[in-house]
Amino acid sequence: MATDVQVPALGESITEGTLAQWLKKPGEAVAVDEAIASLETDKVTVDVPSPVAGVLAEQLVKEGDTVAVGALIARIDQGRSAAAVATPAEAAAAATTNPQGAGENPELRQVPVPLIADDDHITTLSPAVRRAVLEYHVDPSKIQGSGKDGRLTKDDVIAAAEAMKGGAPAQAGAQTETKASPAPTPPTPAPRADWTPVSTGGQRKEERVKMSRIRQTIAKRLKEAQNTAAMLTTFNDVDMSAVIDARARYKDLFEKKHGIRLGFMGFFVKACALAAKDVPSVNASLDGEDIVYHDYFDVSVAVSAPKGLVVPVVRNADVLSFADIEKTIADFGKRAKDGTLTVDEMTGGTFTITNGGVFGSLMSTPIINPPQSAVLGMHRIEERPVAKDGQIVARPMMYLALSYDHRLIDGREAVTFLVRVKEAIEDPTRLLIDL
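The structure corresponding to this sequence follows.
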């Protein structure tokens, strides 16, 4: 009996996506809830699970096709095994395959991606990890995952591949099985299907890559923000000495108690939440001719992902503890790299913080994340000469940039907000006494 596989609900306001990759081929066995395809939406990459156990009978759409929510994309045959659906030609080809792989075309060879199983459950791989497994030709069942609940990460796969290649111990929690003979060097990955090389003669080459749906959405939304909002940026600088001293004094105790490192983001999230109480328009948004003020502070924190910048939301950041903020942001950063963030986690923020300093940025003018009205840009910390009590001294300074929608926020309000953030960072006691 064949069971239809449809595109699942993708989140509020998302009606379609792009089938980025088939994770199962026709004739392969699938388990209940096992991912058979990777679907790319405007915001995240999600897996399409199999509703039943059986064999993938047919794929009804191609990679790169746009599919609507509820659309039929595949059929699962519940009544047959993987061996039963193999055609006579496939069986003959399998029987004559060179067991050593001599003369095989790496582009055509099918590399199985087994599940990681134990006595109690079976864990499927995320799209990013699955692609890494196929690229590096490693067996994920022989790698110890370093992710949450022992999940395998892309870094684990890369570390295992390097260990196989050089004989060195795997890093990032990865472990490989010891063999009598050294493992062969992983073959060069097959060319991607979504780009076309354009030769210009000699060694000069060009690469044409189709923009991912996420990248297209980022481009569209940022251009829309520039075209719609009356955007302006104001700057200030902040002495990071007090925060650096606080981290140095309490980092060990903090990590021992909460199991997470004390970072800078917790201080800035709290400082922005405090400043927003004095300047509520920074935490508001425009809806037609109405101004919508929020009595909660949901911070969109910009984090880097393989296919572009994403902005998961820390809900109710104004009432969360430092530990809860740091844990949430750390989890978002890790899952952004693995491609496992959900649509709901990236929807509904009221204010955005982006930290270009982690990449070395000295100063920038960040772009508003619609329909929000403001975004704070953090930058790198560097020692600069400043005047203190009549003396020129070196201090660890950071430039802050607040981009805001001038239709909603006046210059006085923007400057006041930024000054309040500066005051809280330079004297973190203000965060404790709500001053």
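The CA atoms of residues 142 and 177 lie 6 Å apart.
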